[in-house]
Specification:
This protein has 153 residues and is α+β, with helices and mostly antiparallel strands. The protein has three helices and ten strands, in the order E-E-E-E-E-E-E-E-H-H-E-E-H. Strands 3-6-7-8 form a four-stranded antiparallel β-sheet, with helices on one face. Strands 1-2 form a two-stranded antiparallel ribbon. The chain has a two-stranded antiparallel ribbon with strand order 4-5.
Length: 153
């Protein structure tokens, strides 16, 4: 539980974790790694303010890739950036931009989780219905799901 007392950005004095009476410290800045050809547009270190998000550091690079570092590692998420979005991001202050990056990250995360769960359920049902088919050749293997209509034949 974050006990900073007031919103604190990583790298600044004021961070307190789980001890409201402890002296304030500094949460280290730990940004995602840039590739050699990345051009950094925005760098938003973790922070708190209603939500404890000290563990997430976001960077946006030219080409619309959102880089994220969190406790589970690093991720690169391709966004569909338009000139209008870049203008809107430029008009935002750092806090607003950080919380927008967080919302985009979690929208992507939940969509990917949902898609994986749905596909796993589809394959599980196909296995139960005995509709999974395979074909092996010398160099390849194919696996597919027969449509439900194919079972009746």
């Amino acid at each position: 539980m974050c006990c900073c007392g007031k919103p604190t950005i990583n790298g600044t004095l004021g961070y307190r974790w789980n001890q409201p009476d402890a002296p304030p410290s500094i949460y280290p800045v730990n940004p995602p790694t840039l590739k050699e050809d990345d051009t950094l547009l925005y760098d938003e270190p973790g922070r708190c303010g209603g939500i404890d998000a000290h563990c997430h550091h976001y960077r946006l690079v030219r080409g619309g890739t959102l880089l994220v570092r969190h406790g589970g590692g690093e991720e690169r998420i391709q966004l569909s950036t338009t000139p209008a979005l870049l203008i809107a991001l430029a008009a935002m202050d750092s806090h607003t931009r950080y919380w927008l990056f967080r919302a985009l990250y979690y929208a992507h995360h939940y969509a990917a989780t949902n898609a994986t769960d749905r596909e796993n359920a589809r394959w599980a049902q196909a296995v139960l219905d005995r509709r999974v088919r395979t074909k092996r050749t010398k160099y390849t293997a194919r696996v597919w799901i027969n449509p439900k209509e194919a079972i009746a034949q």
